[in-house]
Design goal:
By secondary structure, the chain is α/β, with parallel strands linked by helices. The protein contains 7 helices and 12 strands.
């Protein structure tokens, strides 16, 4: 029986990890996607799509499919599935690793305004500027819907749904992005403030350099607390090493 790894995915790192693991004939690799994106980039190996039905559903899935190790490689802001993973892994007795890319750090020349949530970001905006570039994803735009005097440019993979701010332009696109491309977007829409989650990683980082170059304030939403006490790897290599050290490999 091959050693079965379940990767909770939806991120670049999750796809990179799956691509690396499928090359090992002693492994069976399954990736799980939430099913939020209409046309997701599919990882290598087996893929299942859709929620498990809470921690109990995930624990049942782990048992039924004889999962030997679980890697939570979901986005740092996907706090619900990470909590479920911790609970389900403990219940099913399956070792769990959190693969978490480090957050971004500000550098000289940055004008960052850290906030704890999207509602806090919305509160901060009227004092910072009138033309806002929202890069926080399609979900949660409703937190900005009451800001009727501000112009919003919102970038997301799929079109957002109501409630939405009244003066909104949607840019359908997905990373990786380039510095030149980000500068062009900021200039074309005469953006005065950038809003981002502290997602970390290289694919969406050029917007931060672009904002620095144009002297724009950046509202940075801090990460939610991850479940405590889990082994954590900052990158794919760390996850591969953790898996290699599991008993039964
Ligand atoms: P979430 O709030 O943490 O999770 C909500 C529910 O969605 C979970 O309880 C689970 O449903 C289901 N779910 C989430 N991720 C799943 C996965 N990989 N496989 C199966 N079910 C999953 O999640 P979210 O913030 O909406 O993010 C959804 C997905 O998008 C994640 O996989 C994440 O990696 C990716 N993503 C999120 C963000 C972000 O900013 N939040 C950005 C980029 C990518 P059940 O309880 O029914 O199991």
């Amino acid at each position: 029986m091959p050693f079965h790894v379940l990767i909770l995915g939806g991120t670049t790192e999750a796809r990179q990890l799956a691509a690396e693991l499928v090359a090992d004939p002693d492994l069976r690799v399954t990736s799980s996607l939430a099913g939020r994106v209409a046309e997701p980039r599919l990882p290598a190996g087996e893929v299942r799509i859709g929620g498990f039905g809470g921690p109990a559903g995930l624990a049942a899935w782990l048992r039924e499919h004889r999962v030997d190790a679980l890697v939570d490689a979901t986005h740092p802001f996907a706090a619900g599935i990470s909590r479920n993973a911790a609970e389900a892994a403990a219940e099913a007795g399956v070792p769990l690793l959190a693969l978490r890319r480090p957050g971004w750090a500000s550098v000289a020349g940055d004008d960052w305004h850290p906030v704890g949530s999207l509602p806090e970001a919305a509160q901060a905006l009227p004092g910072l500027g009138r033309r806002i570039f929202l890069t926080t994803g399609r979900q949660g735009l409703g937190h900005f819907a009451h800001l009727r005097r501000l112009f919003f440019l919102a970038r997301s993979v799929d079109a957002p749904e109501a409630p939405l701010p009244p003066d909104l332009t949607v840019l359908l696109d997905r990373g990786p992005f380039t510095l030149d491309g980000e500068l062009a977007v900021l200039r074309e829409h005469r953006i005065e403030v950038l809003v981002t989650k502290d997602s970390g990683g290289a694919a969406t980082a050029p917007k931060l350099a672009a904002a620095r170059e144009l002297d724009l304030p950046v509202v940075v939403v801090r990460r939610p607390e991850p479940p405590a006490g889990l082994p954590t790897a900052p990158d794919v290599a760390g996850a591969v090493a953790w898996l290699a050290a599991r008993p039964g490999r």
